[in-house]
Structures are given as structure tokens and as C-alpha cells.
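We include this case.
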Amino acid sequence: MSQAKWPEIDWLRGTACIFMILNHAGVAWLDVTQEAGVAASFLTRLGSYAPVVFFFVTGLGYGVRRPTMGRPVPASAYTKIAVLLLADQLLNWWAGRFPVGLDFLGFIGLSAAILEWLTRRRRATAIALGLLVSCIGLRYGLGSAAIMKLIGASSDSWLALVLGRAVLPNVSYTILPWLSYPLAGYLLASWTRRSGDSQRLSGSPTRARLLWVVVPLSGTLTMALLGHGASFFRWGTMSLAFFVSSIALLALGLGLADLLARRSPAPRLANLLAIRGVASLAVVPIHYVVVFFVLLLAPMATGAAHWSGGAYLILLIPVIGAVWTLSRIAAGWTTEWGQLRTQRVALRIAPALAICGAGIVLWIAPPHAQLLRVCAMAVGQLGLGLWLVAPRRPPLPANTNSGA
């Protein structure tokens, strides 16, 4: 079953990319010591939910596939996971996290490895449901507190790290509760696929109505937590308030995607929002370069090191447009690269040289050489994208049966 029949996945992936730009632009451009305004602060905070959507979409992608029980993991899956992990290390080195770290690309690779194993089990859905309940229960239920109290574990012990209750150096996303998002995506897509609806993720009206029940319930609980001064923190460790609000956001996104799929008044707008897999991988390095370049323009335009909240709102549209355009151009070149069947050695060596060169620059370049470092990271990640699609089969033999 092809993902092309599930346009909601591409729409959600595009939404996650926009969220990522909103957050990283806000963090880079706005001065934390100055008042940015309600709108700029809200969009920056909204953008912090980008990993939630990315991880959920990862699970959706595995859930739409036909069952692969008993089949070996293909070499292409290992390549994809390795590319994600290497791209994540380039991102970590650019951020100064040495020698290794785990950011969102690495967590997507880790989730893919777990889902590759899961989809080959006889009772994959039941196992996924059990893991999902365990992730949430051990992190937020009585399980984690009871276990730690029972064995007398401290708040900075290895058990606290496993349960997601403590921060691990250089690790942005812990297994608990972040693994619950790809598991939930897998369960939803698998449920829809098994129901026989191969055209829409939202599937039957019953599931669509269920989404519109979850939205107000989780939204009301989120507002109640906000009213009681709950923390919506998610870096390193994730607060309960953030987790609850992420459920509301995912349900709302799925509901809107269903409406768009059923009654799309503007198919061109829907296609504009959609981002396919290769293009989404290109968005990551390209948006970092564009965001950093715009930050460099701030002193020339305003005389200050940062942009104001109003400028942030104005610049978002052209920045998102530039990132979208450049990413699709890069994806087009990557696709053409992957279709080549000549000079296979060069097609493999060129990306490898770009990746190694980027890694060396990130290790030896001084911290203040930010432009050089962000460009090296982008070159390395784009090289990994080329490596991912580089042809690995021998060229087709020439047709010797066509007579003169």
C-alpha cells in the first residue's frame, strides 16, 4: 500500500516542518530579555510541538504498510536508519554536543528501528498497544513513582533516566514518553488499514467523530492545567501538561486533515502544504541556513543583534516560502540523482566526501565560526540525502537483441 494514497501524512509532515521553522526562527531571532509580543511568543511555543508531529508521522508511515510478518528487514531500511543517525550527529556536532547525542532525527531513526522490528511480529498491534500504555503509564502514572520509591532510586539515578524523569546529557528525547507518539501513529494507521479504507487516514465517520470528541476533552484539560500554572516544558524531560496538550494538537490536526481530504476547496493549497519524505529531510538543513542567514541581517537592518516580535511575524512568510522552494528543488535534484544508472562509483563517493568533509569541519571549526559551521552541517546532511537515494543496483545491460 503506497503512502501516496494517504495525503494526510504529507500534510501533517508539512505542518511539522512549518512548526519547526516557527520554533527555531523564534529561538534564534527573538531576544529573550525583551518582550516579543503575544503573537510571536505563541507561534514560537506552538513550534515546539514539531517533534510530536514528526514522530507521530513516522508511526503513520509504518502503519500504512502491508504486514511484513516473518520477512527479513531489507537493506534499504538499515540504510535509512543509518542516514538518520548520521544526520543527527552532524546536527549535534553543529550544536556543540560531542562526541554523540540524540536529537529529533536520531530519535526518528531509533523509532524506525523499533517499528521495523514491531511490524514483523505476529501480534504487532497488540504489542504496540501494550508498549503505548506502558510508555504513558510508567512516565506519568503511578508506575514510575512507585518503582522509584520501592527501590529507593534518586531523581538522578539510571532508573530516573530510563523512565524519562531525569535529563541525560546530549539527549533531547528520552524513550519515555516520546516513543508513545510513533506507537500511536502506527496504531491509528494500522487500525485504518485493517478496516479496509485505503484512501484516507481518518477513515470512517466514526473515527472522525471520535477525533472531535478527543479535541475538546484534551483541550479542556490543557486549559485547566494552564489555569493552575502547570509547566509546558518538554526539553530533556516532558511535563504532563505538554503531553496532554500534544494530544489535543494531534487530534485537532487529524480532524483538520480529514476535513481537507473530504471537502478540499483549495487543492492547490493542500498540495502546497504537502511535503514528501525526501523533501522533508532537505527542509532540516536548509531551514537552519535560511534562519541563520536572516539572523545575520538583523544588525544591518535594526542595529541590534536580534529581530523584534513584529519583524519575526513579517519575516516568517518569506522564510517559509524560501525554505519550501529550496527544499523542493533539492528534492528534485536528489530524485534525479537516484535515477542515474551510470558512474555508480562517483555517485557513491561524492556524497561520502561531502559527509566526511562536513564532519571534519564541524569538529575543528571554532565555535564563533557559525556561518561556516551551519553551512558544513547543511552540506553534510544534503550529502546524506544523496547517499540515501544513490543507485545500488548494477546498471541495466544494453539491449543486444535490437537488430540494425
Q: What stands out?
A: The CA atoms of residues 35 and 303 lie 17 Å apart.
